[in-house]
Design goal:
The chain is mainly alpha-helical. It contains three helices and no strands. The chain has one domain. Helices cover 63% and strands 0% of the residues. α1 packs across α2.
């Protein structure tokens, strides 16, 4: 079922240029492709941040210290 949406002239022109560049058959195809890039499953990010074990240990310790400091301030 088709839906009617309102977009600015500028956005329409940008979508139109993308449609021509990608040789897409419809604006729906262009918009769908743009939205697909934004849909990321968090599991896709596993392993994305490479860190040495030593760096990870330092980071964990820093987080622990900040949490302790934060909680101790809230008791005041």
């Amino acid at each position: 079922m088709a839906k009617l949406i309102a977009i600015s002239e500028d956005v329409y022109n940008r979508l139109s240029r993308l449609k021509e560049r990608e040789k897409a058959k419809s604006f729906t195809a262009v918009i769908s492709e743009l939205l697909k890039d934004k849909e990321t499953d968090i599991s896709d990010l596993f392993g994305a941040w490479k860190m040495e074990d030593r760096e990870a240990t330092k980071l964990k310790e820093r987080i622990r210290k900040e949490r302790r400091r934060s909680f101790s301030r809230s008791d005041l």
